[in-house]
Amino acid sequence: MENLTLENAKEFALGNFKQMSAEYQEWNLLHSESIIEILRILVKNKETNLTKLFSLAWVHDIGKAKSEENHAVISLGILKNHFNLDKIDEDCILNHGSSMDPQTEEGKIFRYADGLSLFTDKVILFKIHAEKLEGKNLQEIFGGVKKAYEKYKVKYSKNEEIIKLLDKLYTEVVRNHFSQPE
Predict the structure, then answer these.
(1) What is the 3-state composition of the chain as percent helix, strand, coil, each rounded to the nearest 5?
(2) Could you tell me which of 111, 67, 118, 112 has the C-alpha nearest to residue 93?
(3) CB 57 within 8 A of CB 51
(4) For the chain, give me the number of helices (H) and strands (E)?
(5) 88 contacts 107 by C-beta, under 8 angstroms
(6) Using CA atoms, how far apart are residues 54 and 101, in angstroms rounded to an integer?
(7) CA torsion sign, 149 to 152 to 157 to 161?
């Protein structure tokens, strides 16, 4: 087995995403890229292995190709069959959900990046497009975004730095995509 690297993680993820619908492939690509975008912000001036976290951004949701339910556990099982994973890798994969409690500093950063990635421009544009195709109007879509914002505001309330970034991202999303009439 090989160690997880940025190159093999991305290749493995893209190969596994092909098992999903085109829309879900696009979602996973955007979600991974958005986590990386947020990680760049979160790890500034911190001694963190950014390449490791970028690699995990690509593969952390790989289990969703099989099932949404318990996807983190499924992801870990799949990845352990292909890569050597350490404690940090396992913590990031298993505990990236908003309700989880990562034990490592990297796991905590990764958990925040996973949630905050939902408020990046490219993810919101994807959400608007996909939900309009489902028949939702902009007001209904905004309601879902606002509900997610309120959820993460509570989940991340113990970290002032993360709340400031969440507020900034949400404000930009509202200004850029929901302040104009349809």
Answers:
(1) 70, 0, 25
(2) 111
(3) no
(4) 9, 2
(5) yes
(6) 20
(7) negative
Q: Which residue's structure tokens are 């925040």?
A: 112
The position carrying tokens 């190709």 is 65
All structural domains of the chain, each given as residue ranges with its CATH number in brackets, are 2-117 (1.10.3210.10), 119-178 (no CATH)
Residue 135's contacts (CB-CB under 8 Å, 6 or more residues apart) are none
Query: Quick check: 65 and 16 in contact, CB under 8 A?
Result: yes
Render pLDDT for 62-99 as a digit per residue (tens, 0 to 9): 988 777 788 888 999 999 999 999 999 999 998 877 66
Three-class secondary structure of residue 68 per DSSP: coil
> Residue for token digits 């500093």?
105
Backbone phi, psi, residue 83, to 5°: -135, 155
